[in-house]
């Protein structure tokens, strides 16, 4: 795949370090990334974000997560596996299994994240600390802000993989 000639205003084209010859798009205002060419709505949102918020930014939140990567993830490797080969469907099956373990009270997100998450936050029980608008990939951020403290999301898909998110503050 050759590099696109240009990106919409507010976006940058970045060469993937994990997938030679592949490029992704970076929203300069939010830091969100995606493989697909930004839609007109996404480009307009990036331009609006670059212009600055119309009102004060929302307060920071804190969350923990359990991430299951798959072979199509942005970086298909982790502290557990140097090369992740599972399919997206297999990753979703794992996330649903972990979700069931949590909802049925056999485990907590923090304990599962410690041993099962493909994110380096596993060493902290999945804790990502505090973050604000624009600090995380958009789907992750939107899901987190919709949660009440203590609530756990359904599976959330990002370029990184599939997440279960628990808002902690």
From TrEMBL:
<dbReference type="GO" id="GO:0003755">
    <property type="term" value="F:peptidyl-prolyl cis-trans isomerase activity"/>
</dbReference>
<dbReference type="GO" id="GO:0060255">
    <property type="term" value="P:regulation of macromolecule metabolic process"/>
</dbReference>
<dbReference type="InterPro" id="IPR001202">
    <property type="entry name" value="WW_dom"/>
</dbReference>
<dbReference type="GO" id="GO:0080090">
    <property type="term" value="P:regulation of primary metabolic process"/>
</dbReference>
<dbReference type="InterPro" id="IPR046357">
    <property type="entry name" value="PPIase_dom_sf"/>
</dbReference>
<dbReference type="GO" id="GO:0005829">
    <property type="term" value="C:cytosol"/>
</dbReference>
<dbReference type="Pfam" id="PF00397">
    <property type="entry name" value="WW"/>
</dbReference>
<dbReference type="InterPro" id="IPR051370">
    <property type="entry name" value="PPIase_Pin1"/>
</dbReference>
<keyword id="KW-0697">Rotamase</keyword>
<dbReference type="GO" id="GO:0005634">
    <property type="term" value="C:nucleus"/>
</dbReference>
<dbReference type="Pfam" id="PF00639">
    <property type="entry name" value="Rotamase"/>
</dbReference>
<dbReference type="InterPro" id="IPR000297">
    <property type="entry name" value="PPIase_PpiC"/>
</dbReference>
<keyword id="KW-0413">Isomerase</keyword>
<protein>
    <recommendedName>
        <fullName>Peptidyl-prolyl cis-trans isomerase</fullName>
        <ecNumber>5.2.1.8</ecNumber>
    </recommendedName>
</protein>
<feature type="domain" description="PpiC">
    <location>
        <begin position="58"/>
        <end position="169"/>
    </location>
</feature>
<dbReference type="InterPro" id="IPR036020">
    <property type="entry name" value="WW_dom_sf"/>
</dbReference>
<feature type="domain" description="WW">
    <location>
        <begin position="5"/>
        <end position="40"/>
    </location>
</feature>
């Amino acid at each position: 795949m050759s590099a696109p000639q240009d990106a919409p205003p507010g976006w940058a084209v970045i060469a993937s370090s994990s997938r030679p010859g592949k490029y992704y798009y970076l929203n300069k205002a939010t830091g969100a990334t995606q493989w697909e060419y930004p839609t007109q709505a996404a480009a307009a949102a990036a331009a609006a974000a670059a212009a600055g918020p119309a009102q004060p930014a929302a307060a920071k939140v804190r969350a923990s997560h359990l991430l299951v990567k798959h072979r199509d993830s942005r970086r298909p490797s982790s502290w557990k596996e140097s090369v992740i080969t599972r399919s997206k469907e297999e990753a979703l099956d794992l996330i649903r299994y972990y979700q069931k373990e949590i909802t049925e009270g056999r485990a907590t997100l923090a304990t599962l994240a410690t041993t099962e998450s493909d994110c380096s936050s596993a060493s902290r029980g999945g804790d990502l600390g505090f973050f604000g608008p624009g600090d995380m990939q958009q789907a992750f951020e939107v899901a987190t802000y919709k949660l009440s403290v203590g609530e756990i999301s359904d599976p959330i898909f990002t370029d990184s993989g599939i997440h279960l998110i628990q808002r902690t503050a």
